[in-house]
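Quick check before the chapter quiz. The format below is the same one you will see on the exam, so make sure you can read both the input and the output lines.
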Amino acid sequence: MKHTGSCLCGNIRFEIEGEFKYFFLCHCHYCRKDTGSAHAANIFFTPAKLHWLSGEEQVKTYEYNSTGHNKSFCPNCGSALPKLQEGGSVVVVPAGCLDEDIDIRPQAHIYMDDKGNWDHDFESIPKFAELPIKKEE
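Here is the expected output.
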């Protein structure tokens, strides 16, 4: 099965050949920092092949202090991009960079001991179709 994706600005495009293995919402301190959000939403493909369709030479990868935590991203728009792990046998894909609907749902929240103290009871928060703040005129 093939899946395609890209960064926000469109300079970098990729294709993954493989099957979804795991889909985790990671609340670890590192993932919260590098996403600026409550968690990272990562899909793990294994076995899989990552093919860069455009912009491969632009992809930057940040390795954090030999912790095993790393992030690949577009240097132009900052979008998170796929990365190879476990010697290239596992492809980790930020779910939001895929350009298609997927047929897998998150299987688990992980590293819950690290989650933000504000990360709870989201079901009770009002929901809007767009930004609920009006422009000041």
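If your answer matched, good. The mean pLDDT is 92.
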